[in-house]
Structure formats: structure tokens, C-alpha cells
Amino acid sequence: MFVVQVDADKCEGCGECADNCPASVLEMVDGKANVVNGEDCLGCETCVSVCPSGAVTLQEA
Predict the structure, then answer these.
(1) At the topology level of CATH, where does 2-60 sit?
(2) Which pLDDT does position 48 carry in this prediction?
């Protein structure tokens, strides 16, 4: 299992993480990325690699 977290203070609201996540784990809410289906995370780290501000982190639980 993987745990995705978004640092709202760092999130610039670009939506790249949500647009590129193959499991639809992230969505944009009020201009910020939010984890909505965390249990579906594949651990691919796409969200981490496309985030220009470093707001998204992924850890194995």
C-alpha cells in the first residue's frame, strides 16, 4: 500500500498530478490538489515526478 500526500502550502494548483495519475487518486478542489482515492494508489510516482513545486510525496506504508 502507498500513501500519497499533498502539501497544500506548496501546491501551486497546476493540476498536473491529477491530470497524469493513472489511478485517479488526486483531484483538484478549490485550486489545490487533494487525495480522494488514496487506497487505489499504484505507487508509480507519476504524481511526484510531474509536480513542479514538490508538493506531492509518496511513501510505502
Answers:
(1) Alpha-Beta Plaits (3.30.70)
(2) 98
